[in-house]
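Running low. Invent one:
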Amino acid sequence: MKLIIPALALALFVGDGVELKTAYSEGAALRIETEATFKIETVDMTITVDGEEREGFGAGASSADTRRIVQVDRVVALADGAPVKLVRSFEEISGTGSMSFGDQEQEIEFECPLSETVLELTLDDGEVTAEVSVGGSVDSELLDGHHLELALAALLPDGE
């Protein structure tokens, strides 16, 4: 959310004659670092059993997750100014979390099989296909859903 708000603010304050667009070029390397943090805490809870209200058992419970992705996209080929083939290397995919309930706390570390993996992404008949070029074998589900354009390009007007 922190990233979207400045992008929208910039779009609102851009004056006439200024054009926002994504300019890709063959051989360009685009480094994308994303970090997302989620925190939740139960501050009050009531339980009703058979119409009787009971003392809350969950007040004071909390959890937090932080996930980080660092990827580098190298544009290999373009068509009409948009990437049709790129090499995506995942330098870091990590996550940490914590859960607490009362005086008990548990730390968690997340791992992703795509960490330190390199993918070749190709646009073929309107569909993006992904193949592992460096790294071990990964579940085919992790190869689905990749996009060739930058995520913030979705905020630009059509054709920009």
Q: What stands out?
A: Strands lie at 29-41, 47-49, 52-54, 62-79, 82-101, 104-110, 118-124, 127-134.
